[in-house]
Request: fold
Amino acid sequence: MPHICPRCHSNLVAKRNLARKAVGTIGAVSGVVGGVVACAQDGGESDNLAAAVIGGMAAGLAVGIAGARLGEFVDQNLLDNYQCLRCGYLFSDGCI
Reply:
């Protein structure tokens, strides 16, 4: 169901998803760094380096997904996640 602006009644409405983007990105970056550091603590051999890279990618993916889900919850429940492209009004699902 398309969203309608409560102010001007336009159906030109975009989802902003600011928290989802921000928290997902922060989670992915921190997951990669944490995964690489955790896997690289065993030593600097080449096989440990490969494990650190793979571990960092896996941790980044997992933490990034969790962060995006948390951000989506924040977008839907706490922020004005919709913006009218006609008049610029910001609103949430509760306004509809």
Q: What stands out?
A: Strands lie at 13-15, 82-84, 90-91. The chain has two domains: 1-16+80-96, 18-79. Residues 1-16+80-96 form one domain. The chain has two helices and three strands.
